[in-house]
Amino acid sequence: MIKEDEITKEFLENILESMEGGVFTVDKNARITSFNRAAEEITGFKRGEVLNKECSDILKSDLCQEICPLKDTLESGKTFFGYEIMITSKTGKRIPVNISTSPLRSNNNEIIGAVENFRDLTKHKGLWAKLREERNKARQYLNIAGVIIVAINDEGIVSLINRKGCDVLGYKEEEIRGKNWCDLCVPERMRKERKNTFKKVMAGE
Question: What is the CATH number assigned to the segment(s) 126-203?
């Protein structure tokens, strides 16, 4: 007859395996007690290679010898979210990950271990790098344009201005961005009227 605790253990293991991110658990001594499939895929380590070993010996993150969220969780029982760290794969590749840690407690509410969830940020970082590259290209195109190009939000605040605009107006870019266009560039005697006109245009009147 299958014992209830065996059913519970199998149920929990199935949950870990179905999770998208890497998940592993440790005992009170920070030795790995479980390691799901996603964790294997991210790190390159097989479950059998990491069980009963200290996580710091396996993942070798840049926080292992400093402020380790997992060890803090084991000591304090606190949950930590959103740490971005670098871990090392089996092949020695450095991988950026976002981690969260939570305590594991017994029925008596004693800390018996901890669980860490981590997500590979490699694609995320690559996407942001590509976006930065495209933004820089767009900025270069704007700066070589021979006319003033300025972007203003619905409140009249300048969010972007090209080099030609700065040259003509005599301001540095940081002196213009975040400022109200009318306050900055429209003569005071005409300012109220222009602001009212701008509001009507933005309201579709």
Answer: 3.30.450.20
